Amino acid sequence: FLEIGCNSGRNLSFLYEKGYRKLGGIEINTIAINEVLKNKFPDLHRDSQLLVGNAAHQIKNIGTEAYDVVFSNAVLVHIEPKDISLFRDMARVAKKYIAIFTVENPTSSQPYKFEKIFEKLGFKMIQYKLFFGKTLSSCSLPIEHYDDKKHYYNASFIRIFIKNARP
């Protein structure tokens, strides 16, 4: 598994505890990797391929089809248009699957149409699930969306893609 935006390693740690050992992560926050993850999950830090920096640049250091699964949790909607090469490299690095977990504001247009992007890169979406409800967040929406100024309404999506024939 390779996680794009692994932060301090919570998701990777879960996989590590389940026995997975070929793990990797890319994180822009140096402190999250070199201090928090290193101190909280020292075995994971030692045994994993962890890259610090801009994901669109760092993923280029990873070989083709190096990981069975490439995934990201609440990161890809924040990728700047100048860095969309990240999506092409995710497809290059993934041997079998890409899994994307996003929280998207249903009242605004989203910057990327992930289904179209990954289909053009040789993947087929095999799972799509939408969860809609209240979530704690610091995300700012128009005040009419707030019921107590601590929650906002959002849509959480899970999209799983499988590699098919090369485009």
Question: Features of this protein?
Answer:
167 residues, seven-stranded mixed beta sheet, 6 helices, alpha/beta
Describe this structure in words.
The chain is 27% helix and 34% strand. With 167 residues, the chain is an alpha/beta fold. Helix 5 links the parallel strand 4 and strand 5 (94-104). It starts with a strand and ends with a strand.
Quick structural summary:
Helices cover 27% and strands 34% of the residues. With 167 residues, it is of the alpha/beta class. Strands 3-2-1-4-5-7-6 form a seven-stranded mixed beta sheet.
Strand neighbour order, sheet with most strands: 3-2-1-4-5-7-6
H/E element order? EHEHHEHEHEHEE
Structural class comes to alpha/beta
Question: Shape from CA axes?
Answer: globular
Question: Share of helix among residues?
Answer: 25-40%
How much strand content do the residues show? 25-35%
**What is the radius of gyration?**
17 Å
The count of strands amounts to 7
Instruction: Enumerate how many helices there are, as a single number.
Output: 6
Largest sheet, described in full?
A: 7 strands, mixed
Mean pLDDT: 86
